[in-house]
C-alpha cells in the first residue's frame, strides 16, 4: 500500500498525484455519498473480514520458519496487515485436508463415548495453534475492538463419519452405510434421515456439541456454526447433502435443541451455499411457523456461480442479496439476524503458479467488487476460503486446487537448504496445471510485480488480491456501517462520459471482460464504457463483445426469458439454434421523441422493462444494479433511449435521480462508502475501484458538497478516509 496526501486547492481537496490535464479530456464522474444516510440502521453492523483455518492452511503455515510464521500472522491479523477478525474452520475433514478424517470412527457409537475430546488431529496439524495465534494477534492489535468484537470463528461440517452416512451410488449393493466420507446420498446423507426418532441425526447433533466443547477446552470459543457446507451439492469430496426440507428438520428436531441446551451462546447459521437458492431456503426455514426458525441466528452464503465456469464466481447473485435483506424485513425476522459471506476463492490453482499477473490482478478486482457489492446489499462480513496455501493451491485430497491471498513457498526462503523440495510431503497433486511459473521468476522479478522480496525471503508470496482486499479490511473495521454511495454520471455536457470524451462515439474503458454467458444484466449510471455498449445485430439480438481473463474473445446476447434463480435477464449464447437469446425490435413510443420500446419478437406483447431491486438498492440506491426483465409494453418503465451510434441503451425510470444505462454485470468504476466512527479514528471511508483499462476522473460529494477531486489510474483501488 502507499499513502497519498490530500492538498487544498481553491476550497477543494485533491490527491497530490492528480494529473490536471486528465481532468480536461474526459468527463468527471460524480461520486455521491451521504455519511448521514446509513443503509441498514436496524440491522447488525459489519462484523469484519477473514479467512479459513483449514488443515491445508495450518500445514502450509507450519512449513515456514518462525520468522515466516510471525510474518504471516501479522500479514493476516495484525494492525499493519489485513486486520482479519473473522475465521472459519471445518468439523472433521474437508477437501482441503490431506485425507478424510473424523473425530469418532466407532460404528454405532451413538453416545460418542469414543469421540476424541482432544481433537488430536486438529492439534497435530496445527489448526488449533494457528487459531490461538490469530486470536492473540487480534487482541493485541485492536484492543478497542476486543470487548465487543475480537476474533470470531465459525465452524462448518463437510461430512459426518462414514458410519453415520447412508450408502451412495458408489457403495456396494446392500451396504449398511457409506464406505467413505466423500460423496453423499440424496436427498439427505444421514442413514435414517432426520426425523424425530433418527438415532444418527441425534448423534450427529451431539457431535457438534462435543466439537465445540473440545475446542473451547483448548481456548478457541466459536462464534457460530453452520449446519452444513454446501448442502445442495453431493460433492466428490467430503460431503453431506440436505434439501431445504431435510435441513429444516435436522435443525428443528436435533441440532437446534442440542445447541440450545449445551451452547446457547453459539450462533447457528443455515444454508451456507451459493446465492442462487438463498431466498428460496429463507422463505421456508425462516417462516415464523417453521419449527426450525427459532433456532436460526443467521444466513451463510458462498460466492460461487455453481457451474463449471469459474470466471463467473463472484459475478452472480447480487440482486438476490438485496432480495434476501428485503425478505428478512418482510418476514419480520429478528433484527439481529446475521448475513455472512462464508466462503470465496478463485480456482483453479494460484496466481503465482499461473504466472500471468493480469489474471492475478483480475482475481483481486473480482474480490473487491463482490465484497463492496455484498456490503452495499446488507451483508455483515466476508470470509475468504483458505488463509494460506502452497504454490499450486493445495493440499487438497481431491485435487481441487485454489488460490489464496498468501502462499507458503518455503523453498524460496533465503535460509532454505539447497535441495529443499518445491512441494512438501503433504502435497500429492504434482503439477496438474503445468509448471509453476512463479518458481521460474527471480526474487527481483516477483518484487517488481508486487510480491515483496522481504516476504519472499521468508518463504511467503503475498499476492495482488491481498493488497486489494486490504483497502477494505484495514479501514472498514468491525462496527462500521455501509452508507449511501454511488458513482454517478459525469456532470455538465451530456455527450461526455467518464470513459468517453466529447466528440467520441466509441465506448471507452478498455476490454469488457463481463461479456460472458451467465452474467446478469443490470442498470447503473452511464459511464460510456464497453460494459454499456450494445449492438442490435442482423438477427435482432442485443449483443455484447469482449475478452475473458485469458485473452480469448467472447460474445453474448441478452436472454429472452428471466433466469429462474436470479429472476432477471442474463447474458446467454447468441446461437439462434439454441433458442435462448431474445429477438428484439426497436419501436418508437408514440408521441415521445427519442423514446422507444424494445419489443420481444418472441412475444409481441412483451417489452424490455426495468425491474427495481427489492430493498431499494441498499447503500447504492435504486440506480445501483436494478435488474432488467420482460414485461408489459404499457408500463412506463418499458420506455428506453437507444443510441445506435454509441451502443447505449438508457432508461429514465429513476428520473429524479438521473438516467441509467443497460450494463453487463456492473460498471468499471465502483464505490463503497462507510461510517467507520464506531471503532476507528476516522469518521468515514470511501473506497473507489476502477476495473477499466483507462484512468477515470472523479469528484466526491458528501450531501451535495464537493469534498475531493481526484483521478484513479487503470485497474486500481483507492481508499479515502475522512475526519
Walk me through the structure.
The protein is an alpha/beta fold. Helix content is 21%, strand content 24%. It contains 15 helices and 32 strands. The strands form 6 sheets. The chain has an 8-stranded parallel beta sheet with strand order 10-9-8-7-6-5-4-11. It starts with 5 loop residues before the first strand and ends with a strand.
Write the layout of secondary structure elements.
Blueprint: E1 6-9, E2 12-15, H1 20-25, E3 28-38, E4 48-52, H2 55-62, H3 66-77, E5 86-91, H4 120-125, H5 127-141, H6 143-146, E6 152-157, H7 199-217, E7 224-226, H8 244-262, E8 267-274, H9 278-285, E9 298-302, H10 318-330, E10 338-343, H11 351-354, H12 357-377, E11 381-386, E12 388-389, E13 406-408, H13 443-448, H14 453-456, E14 460-462, H15 464-473, E15 481-490, E16 521-525, E17 535-536, E18 542-547, E19 553-558, E20 571-572, E21 584-588, E22 596-600, E23 606-611, E24 626-632, E25 639-643, E26 648-651, E27 660-664, E28 669-675, E29 684-690, E30 696-702, E31 705-712, E32 716-722
Parallel strand pairs: 3-30, 4-5, 4-11, 5-6, 6-7, 7-8, 8-9, 9-10, 12-13
Antiparallel strand pairs: 1-2, 3-15, 13-14, 15-28, 16-24, 16-27, 17-18, 18-19, 19-20, 21-22, 22-25, 23-24, 25-26, 26-27, 28-29, 29-32, 30-31
Helix pairs in contact: 3-5, 7-8, 9-10, 10-12, 12-15
List the defining traits of the structure above.
eight-stranded antiparallel beta sheet; 15 helices; 24% strand; globular; alpha/beta; 723 residues; eight-stranded parallel beta sheet
Amino acid at each position: 500500500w502507499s499513502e497519498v496526501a490530500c492538498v487544498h486547492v481553491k476550497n477543494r481537496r485533491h490527491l497530490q498525484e492528480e494529473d490536471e490535464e486528465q481532468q480536461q479530456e474526459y468527463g468527471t464522474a460524480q461520486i455521491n455519498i451521504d455519511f448521514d444516510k446509513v443503509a441498514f440502521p436496524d440491522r447488525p453492523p459489519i462484523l469484519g473480514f477473514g479467512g479459513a483455518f483449514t488443515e491445508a492452511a495450518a500445514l502450509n503455515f507450519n512449513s515456514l520458519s518462525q520468522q515466516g510464521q510471525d510474518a504471516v500472522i501479522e500479514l493476516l491479523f495484525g494492525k499493519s496487515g489485513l486486520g482479519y477478525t473473522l475465521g472459519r474452520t471445518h468439523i472433521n475433514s474437508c477437501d482441503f485436508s490431506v485425507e478424510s478424517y473424523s473425530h469418532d470412527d466407532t460404528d454405532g457409537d451413538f453416545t460418542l463415548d469414543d469421540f476424541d475430546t482432544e481433537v488430536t488431529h486438529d492439534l497435530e496439524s496445527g489448526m488449533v495453534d494457528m487459531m490461538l495465534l490469530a486470536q492473540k494477534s487480534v487482541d493485541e492489535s485492536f484492543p478497542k475492538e476486543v470487548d465487543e468484537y475480537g476474533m470470531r470463528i465459525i465452524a462448518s461440517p463437510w461430512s459426518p463419519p462414514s458410519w453415520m452416512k447412508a450408502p451412495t451410488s458408489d457403495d456396494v449393493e446392500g451396504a449398511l452405510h457409506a464406505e467413505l466420507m466423500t460423496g453423499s446420498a440424496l436427498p439427505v446423507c444421514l442413514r435414517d434421515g432426520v426425523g424425530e426418532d433418527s438415532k444418527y441425526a441425534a448423534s450427529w447433533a451431539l457431535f457438534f456439541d462435543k466439537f465445540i466443547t473440545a475446542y473451547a477446552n483448548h481456548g478457541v470459543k466459536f462464534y457460530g456454526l453452520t449446519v452444513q457446507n454446501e448442502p445442495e451439492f453431493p460433492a466428490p469430496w467430503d460431503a453431506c447433502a440436505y434439501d431445504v426440507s431435510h435441513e429444516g428438520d435436522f435443525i428443528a428436531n436435533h441440532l437446534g435443541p442440542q445447541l440450545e441446551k449445551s451452547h446457547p451462546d453459539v450462533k447457528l447459521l443455515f444454508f451456507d451455499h451459493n446465492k442462487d437458492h438463498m431466498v428460496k431456503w429463507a422463505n421456508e426455514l425462516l417462516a415464523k411457523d417453521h419449527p426450525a426458525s427459532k433456532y436460526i441466528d443467521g444466513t451463510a452464503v458462498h460466492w460461487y456461480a455453481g457451474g463449471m465456469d469459474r470466471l463467473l464466481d463472484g459475478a452472480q447473485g447480487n440482486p438476490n442479496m438485496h432480495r434476501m435483506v428485503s425478505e428478512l424485513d418482510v418476514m419480520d425476522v429478528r433484527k439481529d439476524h446475521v448475513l455472512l459471506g462464508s466462503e470465496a476463492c478463485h480456482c483453479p490453482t494460484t496466481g503465482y503458479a499461473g504466472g500471468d499477473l493480469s489474471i492475478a490482478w483480475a482475481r483481486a478486482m473480482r474480490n473487491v467488487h463482490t465484497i463492496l457489492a455484498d456490503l452495499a446489499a446488507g451483508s455483515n462480513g466476508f470470509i475468504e476460503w483458505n488463509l494460506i496455501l502452497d504454490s499450486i493451491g493445495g493440499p487438497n485430497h481431491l485435487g481441487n486446487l485454489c488460490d489464496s491471498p498468501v502462499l507458503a513457498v518455503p523453498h524460496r526462503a533465503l535460509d532454505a537448504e539447497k535441495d529443499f523440495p518445491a512441494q512438501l510431503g503433504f502435497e500429492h497433486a504434482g503439477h496438474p496445471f503445468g509448471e509453476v511459473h512463479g518458481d521460474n521468476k527471480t526474487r527481483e522479478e516477483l518484487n517488481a510485480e508486487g510480491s515483496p522480496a522481504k516476504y519472499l525471503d521468508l518463504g511467503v508470496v503475498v499476492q495482488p488480491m491481498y493488497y486489494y482486499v486490504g483497502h477494505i479490511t484495514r479501514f472498514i473495521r468491525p462496527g462500521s456501517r455501509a452508507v449511501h454511495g454511488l458513482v454517478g454520471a459525469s456532470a455538465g455536457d451530456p455527450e461526455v462520459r467518464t470513459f468517453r470524451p466529447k466528440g467520441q462515439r466509441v465506448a471507452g474503458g478498455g476490454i469488457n471482460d463481463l461479456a460472458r454467458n451467465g452474467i446478469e444484466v443490470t442498470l447503473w449510471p452511464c459511464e460510456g464504457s464497453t460494459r454499456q455498449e450494445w449492438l442490435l445485430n442482423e438477427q435482432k439480438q442485443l449483443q455484447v463483445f469482449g475478452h475473458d481473463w485469458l485473452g480469448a474473445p467472447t460474445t453474448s446476447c441478452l436472454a429472452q426469458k428471466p433466469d429462474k434463480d436470479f429472476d432477471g435477464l442474463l447474458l446467454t449464447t447468441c446461437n439462434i439454434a439454441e433458442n435462448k437469446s431474445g429477438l428484439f425490435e426497436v419501436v418508437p413510443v408514440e408521441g415521445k421523441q427519442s423514446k422507444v420500446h424494445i419489443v420481444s419478437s418472441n412475444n409481441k406483447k412483451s417489452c424490455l422493462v426495468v425491474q427495481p431491486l427489492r430493498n431499494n438498492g441498499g447503500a447504492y440506491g435504486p440506480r445501483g444494479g436494478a435488474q432488467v426483465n420482460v414485461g408489459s409494453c404499457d408500463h412506463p418503465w418499458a420506455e428506453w433511449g437507444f443510441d445506435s451510434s454509441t451502443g447505449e441503451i438508457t432508461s429514465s425510470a429513476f428520473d429524479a435521480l438521473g438516467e441509467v444505462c443497460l450494463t453487463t454485470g456492473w460498471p468499471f468504476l465502483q464505490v463503497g462508502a462507510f461510517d467507520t466512527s464506531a471503532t476507528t479514528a476516522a469518521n468515514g471511508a470511501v473506497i473507489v475501484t476502477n476495473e477499466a483499462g483507462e484512468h477515470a476522473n472523479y469528484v466526491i460529494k458528501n450531501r451535495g458538497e464537493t469534498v475531493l477531486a481526484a483521478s484513479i489510474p487503470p485497474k486500481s483501488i483507492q481508499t479515502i478516509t475522512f475526519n
